Write the structure tokens for this entry.
Amino acid sequence: MFDGFSSPMPARIARLLILPALLALAIAVALVASGRIVLPPRYDPFAPFDLAEEPGFLTRFKFARATAAPALCRAALARGDIAFEPVPDRSTGEGCGFTAAGRIARLGTASLASPVILACPTALALAAFERHQLAPAAQTHLASRLARIEHLGTYACRNINHAATGRRSRHATAEAIDISGFVLADGRRLTLTGDWSSPDAGRAAFLRAARDGACRWFGVTLSPDYNPLHYDHFHLDTGGGRACR
Ligand SMILES: [Zn+2]
């Protein structure tokens, strides 16, 4: 063996190519960023989040950017034709209140059983969830259009699990919604209480698909699988935590 000259040729070639490859990548990024190369929006990391776009490998990045700034978030809802009527900021000084929140009554095809106040990122997550998970799952598992989402509310100045002491719930900042059921265009109604363990395979499969799909858009998704407190609703929030239960 010739020690010192044992580096195999492919590894040496790979090392020689790293710098030109990085340079080419940097040039490509600069050309896209400056608008000299126009990519289809789906493949353009600088394109804004679009509710109508089929989720792809850049979706998580675009969604994170849209939810980080109120103006971008409101623009994403407006582009998706979702009415989000701004409401005045509220602060009670006890860890309760909201800023840049809005009233929302209707998503893409489904309405909310009653209008709710939500922080914009939570509203955008709900709109994406309805469009990309709930609506297709209703067609797949129940062969009907999703018409209405029933809920137990969003904003409430309270602690986690209604405890007398402890941390504030994300409901206290309008960053959470509790969903209790769904109504289909053909009139059928599903509830978490009645259908999570339904012998009707389609109903149970729809609710499982809804829970799993929520995890793609909300930081925290809690279902009846999590604990007995959630037997009758999905708790969905965008408050920064991570859970999919
Ligand atoms: Zn909740």
